[in-house]
Amino acid sequence: MGSTNTVFNTETRFDPSYVKTLPGMIKIAVIILDLLGFVCIQSSAFRWNGRGVYFNVVAHLGLWLSSILLLLYLFHIVEKYHKLKWLKIEMTVYGVIAFLYLVASTIVVAFGAAAYSAAGFFGYLAMVLYGFDAFLKYRAWRTGELAQGHRVPAKQMHVVTPPSLP
């Protein structure tokens, strides 16, 4: 087994290539779904109903946390503060949001209004994506992956000793 060195570049820089990765695409998708669900509730005549308010609280929570995490990855702040357990933090946050979306989407769909049903649909989609991202973070954490940064194989040195003289 070879050894590896972990390399972290701790300078803050903008790197748009993150949005082309699977976690980056998931973050953008959930941000869009959060906004769509919010707009559906706000366009309803029942927007001040407690169910709609709860759904909007969950949608805003997901929107803000996902947006902040997206910015942290885009500017490599996650790599800069690599000592934090980012994978565990994200896994926990996204698992909780997935559960909150399950509850919020179920109660707005049960209300029966068309706008609420549309919001519930977007909420269920967001729930699936948040849950999937939480699963990806769990798997990465269990296998010892890094949230951001990379590992490089260490250079191996072979020392050859001459045969001893009799």
UniProtKB/TrEMBL annotation:
Subcellular location: Membrane
Residues annotated as transmembrane: 28-48, 54-75, 87-107, 113-132
Claim: Transmembrane is one of the keywords in the record: yes
Top-level lineage group: Eukaryota
Membrane topology summary: Multi-pass membrane protein
GO CC term (a single one): membrane
UniProt cross-references to Pfam families, sorted A to Z: MARVEL
Keyword Transmembrane applies: yes
Keywords, alphabetical: Membrane, Transmembrane, Transmembrane helix
Record domain MARVEL: where: 18-142
Chief localization: membrane
PANTHER family attached to this UniProt entry: MARVEL DOMAIN-CONTAINING PROTEIN, MARVEL-CONTAINING POTENTIAL LIPID RAFT-ASSOCIATED PROTEIN
Protein name per the record: MARVEL domain-containing protein
Source organism: Parnassius mnemosyne (clouded apollo)
